[in-house]
């Protein structure tokens, strides 16, 4: 079987990471070859250059690369522009395709959206809320395949240095693009302000970069208990250094970065936005709070901070739940969908 993956994104965010994880896992399969159609400058090329039986083909937009790409059995579209590419490829070369939707935004009732979704061999959602959004359109059945945890590298020595840099502090971590309308970092700022005097041992550490960086830093410049660390390539070292993890997203397809935090056995407080409840079940796998509620985040941090038994309970429950979010399980589900598309 020959599978062509399509991801035309410029950067490397959650969707690209999941694309890479799937391609690496499928690379372990005998009698299966893969092709990735992506931009000439895509970070995915460096990420995947050692995967066996994988070739690359250039496409810098939806109309590009259709006749440069090798003949394939099935096309898998991993983001919005890729969906348009896959649909057009079917018109040109009669190749079946499936699509994966990763965002929980409503789908507009446009002619092209109806065509691209209804003509797909399979429509895949990465969370239950996204599945519901697609089903509302009545454009076909929708399969559920969760995003999965990665294999973040972790250097214990580097983690120790991070802890040493904030000696005597309990580290409340966050990782995410600095885009407040998505990730809700202003909620973190407000919570840090509420805790600054009563809980001076708590130090908030935020990793990431994005368009709201300057605004967020200006809003929190008076807070000594909040540190913006910028983009880091060694995210795993920081996650293992965190004592608690906060994730107050305002919307979220699934929140797959939470899976890496669970893997590091760090207790989590997260909002109930989007697909997050598929991962964070209140008082079972983490503490769930209403989206946009800074006081709820503050109260949850206080509760976690004073209850070591609760911390252990949440870590144990989350670790058990993590078994549903492994790369091997995801690859098996997609292989079945590829076979179904061919039949």
Tell me the number of structural domains: 2
Q: What's the gyration radius in Å?
A: 21 Å
The total count of strands amounts to 13
Q: Say which CATH homologous superfamily of the largest domain is assigned.
A: Glycogen Phosphorylase B
| Second-tier CATH architecture of the largest domain | 3-Layer(aba) Sandwich
How much of the sequence is in beta strands? 15-25%
Q: How much helicity do the residues have?
A: 25-40%
Explain the overall architecture:
40% of the residues lie in helices and 18% in strands. It contains 14 helices and 13 strands. The chain has helices at residues 14-26, 44-48, 80-93, 111-118, 128-135, 156-165, 180-183, 185-195, 213-219, 235-241, 257-263, 294-305, 308-321, 327-342, and strands at 2-7, 33-38, 54-58, 74-77, 97-101, 122-125, 142-144, 170-175, 202-207, 226-230, 244-247, 268-271, 287-289. The chain has a 7-stranded parallel beta sheet with strand order 3-2-1-4-5-6-7, with helices on both faces. The two termini are 12 Å apart. The relative contact order is 0.13. The mean pLDDT is 96.
What's a quick, concise take on this entry?
With 343 residues, this protein is an alpha/beta fold.
Q: Secondary-structure blueprint of this entry?
A:
Elements: E1 2-7, H1 14-26, E2 33-38, H2 44-48, E3 54-58, E4 74-77, H3 80-93, E5 97-101, H4 111-118, E6 122-125, H5 128-135, E7 142-144, H6 156-165, E8 170-175, H7 180-183, H8 185-195, E9 202-207, H9 213-219, E10 226-230, H10 235-241, E11 244-247, H11 257-263, E12 268-271, E13 287-289, H12 294-305, H13 308-321, H14 327-342
Parallel strand pairs: 1-2, 1-4, 2-3, 4-5, 5-6, 6-7, 8-9, 8-11, 9-10, 11-12, 12-13
């Amino acid at each position: 079987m020959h599978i062509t993956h399509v991801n035309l994104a410029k950067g490397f965010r959650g969707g690209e990471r999941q694309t890479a994880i799937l391609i690496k896992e499928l690379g372990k399969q005998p009698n299966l070859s893969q092709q990735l159609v992506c931009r000439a400058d895509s970070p995915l090329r460096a990420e995947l250059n050692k995967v066996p039986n994988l070739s690359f083909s250039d496409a810098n937009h939806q109309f590009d690369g259709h006749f440069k790409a090798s003949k394939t059995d099935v096309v898998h579209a991993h983001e919005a522009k890729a969906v348009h590419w896959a649909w057009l490829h079917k018109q040109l070369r009669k190749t079946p395709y499936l699509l994966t939707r990763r965002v929980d935004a409503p789908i507009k009732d446009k002619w092209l959206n109806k065509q691209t979704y209804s003509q797909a061999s399979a429509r895949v959602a990465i969370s239950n809320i996204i599945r519901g959004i697609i089903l509302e359109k009545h454009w076909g059945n929708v399969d559920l395949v969760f995003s999965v945890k990665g294999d973040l590298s972790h250097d214990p020595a580097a983690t120790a240095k991070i802890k040493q840099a904030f000696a005597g502090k309990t580290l409340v971590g966050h990782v995410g693009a600095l885009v407040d309308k998505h990730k809700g970092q202003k909620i973190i700022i407000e919570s840090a302000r509420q805790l600054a005097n009563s809980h001076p041992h708590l130090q908030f550490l935020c990793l990431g970069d994005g368009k709201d960086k300057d605004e967020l830093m200006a809003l929190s410049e008076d807070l000594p208990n909040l540190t913006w660390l910028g983009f880091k390539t060694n995210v795993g070292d920081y996650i293992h250094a965190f004592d608690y993890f906060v994730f107050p997203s305002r919307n979220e397809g699934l929140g797959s970065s939470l899976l890496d935090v669970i893997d590091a056995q760090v207790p989590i407080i997260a909002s109930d936005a989007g697909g997050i409840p598929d991962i964070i079940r209140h008082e079972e796998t983490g503490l769930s709070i209403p989206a946009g509620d800074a006081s709820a985040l503050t109260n949850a941090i206080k509760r976690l901070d004073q209850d070591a038994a609760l911390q252990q309970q949440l870590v144990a429950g989350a670790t058990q739940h993590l078994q549903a979010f492994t790369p091997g399980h995801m690859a098996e589900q997609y292989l079945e969908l590829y076979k179904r598309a061919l039949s």
